[in-house]
Amino acid sequence: MSLILFTYHIRKKERLIGSIIYGTDEIRNNFSGPFFDYIKKTYRSLLELSYDTKYLKRGRYALLNHIRIMLQIKDKNITFLDVTEEEIKGQLTNVVHATLSPEMRSCPECGCTKMGVNGNHQFVKNGKKVTTIRLAAFNYIPTVMKLAKQRYHCRECHHHWTAQTSLVAPNCFISRHIRLEIARLLKERIAMTLIAKLCFVSSNTVIRELHQFKKYLPNKQTLVLPKVLMVDEFRSHAKKEQSMSFICADGETGNLVDVLPDRRLDNLVPYFKESPYTQEVEFLVSDMNAAYYQLIPKVFKNAKLIIDRFHVIKHINTAFNSFRALEAKRLISRGGQSATRGRKIKSNWKRLIKNRQNIDISEYKTWRSFRAPKYPYLTEAMVIDRLLSYSEPLKEAYQVFHDITDAFREKDADLFFDTIRSMPDKLNPEFRHAIQNLENHEVGIRNGLIYPYSNGKIEAKNTHIKTLKRVSYGFRSYDNMRTRIFLMNGLIKIK
Fold first, then answer.
1. Least CB-packed of 5, 135, 261, 429 within 10 Å?
2. φ and ψ at 255, to 5 degrees?
3. CA-to-CA distance for 272 and 278, rounded, in angstroms?
4. Top-level CATH class of 215-308+454-488?
5. Rounded CA gap, 268 and 225, in Å?
6. Distance CA 46, CA 237 (A)
7. Exposed, middle or buried: residue 445 (CB in 10 Å: 0-12, 13-18, 19+)?
């Protein structure tokens, strides 16, 4: 009887241990002796082990909860079981084992509740289906989740279904975290193959995610045009008939407006005519592409043409440099001392186009083209004078070139065009003709000197596009490139 009673107390563990060890005198007298002392000692060890087991369980729960936080899994119905390391497709992978068993209240097919009229369960659990879900990499190691999804069966309509989670879309094994990471990386100027490697997915998966954003691209009917419209072109793809694509942006904010596959006027005019905001455009900022000028009388009838100031200076510099190169080549072809002078003119081209206001006239030093002791110490102004003394036509062109650029930097339109019209007749015909071409763009150049708008913002976007093309080794699909450009400019919001 005493042995039975003691066994009963052992089974009760914590709740009844006091009645044995710290109980009444009657109980102590009934259970005394060396044997009972040994039992008490053994039971205390069992009790301590039970407490340790509790703490272990609590620690394990806390650890698994930390895993939930690190993996950013919000679904409370997912219960984590274990984390292991396995080799999947020849690569070491973190494997998270978990179950999904949400409490179902009604059948999604017939809508019946869990309890029927007679009190029996109308739908029951019907096994589990294990699926592998690709998660975001943790510590640069690919991570997957083997999720055991609970299956259910409705006795009323005999419908079978599997529990779903917000972690992943139905019938998909790529988690939403991966999809968001791919979308974030698509905004960067990196190749899609690199994105696939960083996310441990295939390139086709990245392309499929990119196609999801095509529906957010602007169309002709919803195209909103700004007050200041910048237009330009860039080389997009390999098709010869459509090698140059068209790009336009807001001249005030710099935001991208749209990208078109072709810059030809026959395609631009009908495209912009379908927009209801053509009358809102007050300024059209462009380079000296004559095709864009036709957009004003045909589409933007209220707009003023502005020629980008950078392209004007570039045109003048190109004209002078072309003549300088020809003059240097002519001197080199003569041989002897003339060849030496021609090579000096050829190598010092940067000093000849340098702004006259920034030329140093006080510091004496040696120069690569005029080394001591053969040549004395010279200032930069002396070097330029010596170079110009080698060619009289170059000296004349140098004077005209800097007179024109100085007037342009001062934004004096009248002086600028007066200088062009008063160029001497003895000036080199090719150089004079190239400069006189600016008169064909007089209206746009004058507006460019009056108003503060330029194509600087859109040229920066072209640089980013060129970088994207270079790291991607080009694009075979124009649509993919266009979508990447809009993502890169933040016009497609990702939440």
1. 429
2. -70, 140
3. 7
4. alpha beta
5. 14
6. 76
7. buried
Q: Which of 34-48, 360-374, 431-445, 449-463 has the lowest mean pLDDT?
A: 34-48
Tokens 């990499």 map to which residue?
Answer: 137
The amino acid sitting at 476 is R
Alpha-carbon distance of 477 to 75, in angstroms, equals: 38
Can you give the pTM of this predicted structure?
0.74
Report pLDDT for 7.
40
Give the mean pLDDT of 302-307.
94
Q: Which pLDDT does position 315 carry in this prediction?
A: 95
For the cut 50, the answer to whether the pLDDT of residue 9 exceeds it is: no
pLDDT digits (tens, 9 = 90+) for 415-455: 999 999 999 988 999 999 999 999 999 999 999 999 999 99
Q: How many residues does the chain have?
A: 495
User: Over the chain, what is the mean pLDDT?
Assistant: 83
Residue carrying the six token digits 């070139």: 401
Q: Residue 305's pLDDT is what?
A: 95
SS3 annotation, the chain = CHHHHHHHHHHHCCCCHHHHHCCCHHHHHHCCCHHHHHHHHHHHHHHHHHHHHHHHHHHHHHHHHHHHHHCCCCCCCEEEEEEEEEEECCEEEEEEEEEECCCCCECCCCCCECECCCCCECEEEEEEEEEEEEEEEECCEEEEEEEEEEEEEECCCCCEEECCCCCECCCCCEEHHHHHHHHHHHCCCCCHHHHHHHHCCCHHHHHHHHHCCHHHCCCCCCCCCCCEEEEEEEECCCCHHHCEEEEEEECCCCCEEEEECCCCHHHHHHHHHCCCCHHHCCEEEECCCHHHHCHHHHCCCCCEEEECHHHHHHHHHHHHHHHHHHHHHHHHHHCHHHHHHHHHHHHCHHHHHCCHHHCCCCCCECCCCCCCCCCCCECHHHHHHHHHCCCHHHHHHHHHHHHHHHHHHCCCHHHHHHHHHCCCCCCCHHHHHHHHHHHHHHHHHHHHHHCCCCCHHHHHHHHHHHHHHHHCCCCCCHHHHHHHHHHHCCCCCCC
Please, which residues have CB within 8 angstroms of residue 427's CB and are 6 or more apart in sequence? 393, 396, 397, 400
**Rounded to an integer, what distance in angstroms lies between the CA atom of residue 374 and that of residue 81?**
86
The pLDDT of 148-153, averaged and rounded, is 88
| Mean pLDDT to the nearest integer, 73-91 | 86
Amino acid 276: pLDDT? 85
How far apart CA 196 and CA 185 sit, in angstroms, is 10
In this structure, of 9-18, 110-119, 196-205, the range with the lowest mean pLDDT score is 9-18
pLDDT of 40 strictly over 70? no
